[in-house]
Specification:
222 residues, alpha/beta, Rossmann fold, five-stranded parallel sheet, 9 helices, 41% helix
């Protein structure tokens, strides 16, 4: 099953890049193809509104010619789209909506519950710092987007506290098993086309109840 991973996280965040790398390897371990797109490296134009033209035909072409338009064939051929978003960064909410708007020319919207495009699966990998855990509005966006194109939104995997993880020694982080869980989550997604709820819960579990106390202690000994 072909998939595309749209990575909106910072390239300099080594912890998140490690998780995304583990997910990518897990998906590819089944023999499935995965296209990893780093949006921090791309130049994305604002939507020019080509779909508002009365003569517009949703044939996969867009008036905007930029890095995103070159990715359209991969998006169209991939049965699964995975969005990796750092919701603690303002840049995410500047580029992510712009990309969603630019996807409109590719596929016809649902008409009377029917669409000529094959149904795709949507999964979001969300990351946030300790105080940025509210994802309700973002989930609304994914649900609305999936409904518009009659896609199957599998849900999200939300890993909080990555700022805490930056303070913890590597040997302790390894004991949490996050990398293995992302790997296994992706391999099962590729093999079965579904989200493993057990692994989802493991990846979303709090690393410690007293996060602020842990941060203070680690700052003292670091």
């Amino acid at each position: 099953m072909e998939a595309i991973l749209l990575d909106f996280t910072e390239l300099l965040n080594k912890r998140l890049q490690t998780f995304i790398h583990s997910f990518s390897k897990g998906y590819q371990s089944t023999g499935s193809q995965l296209h990893l797109i780093k949006f921090q490296q791309l130049n994305i134009m604002d939507c020019l509104g080509c779909t508002e033209d009365v003569f517009f035909v949703p044939n996969g072409e867009c008036k905007c010619i930029d890095d995103l338009s070159e990715i359209y064939p991969k998006l169209k051929n991939s049965q699964t789209w995975v969005f990796a978003l750092d919701i603690s960064k303002n840049e995410t909410f500047q580029k992510f909506p712009k990309v969603l708007n630019r996807l409109e020319p590719m596929f016809p919207t649902v008409l009377n519950g029917l669409t000529s495009s094959p149904q795709k699966k949507i999964l979001s990998l969300l990351f946030s710092k300790t105080n940025d855990g509210n994802i309700s509005s973002l989930l609304d966006v994914f649900n609305e987007f999936s409904t518009l194109y009659n896609y199957n939104f599998l849900g999200c995997v939300h890993r909080t506290n990555y700022d805490i993880l930056e303070l913890i020694p590597e040997r302790i982080i390894n004991s949490f098993g996050f990398e293995d869980d992302y790997f296994n989550l992706a391999s099962e997604l590729a093999a079965k086309g579904s989200l493993n709820k057990f692994l989802q819960e493991r990846l979303q579990r709090p690393i410690i109840q007293e996060e602020f106390l842990l941060r203070d202690i680690l700052n003292l000994i670091k």
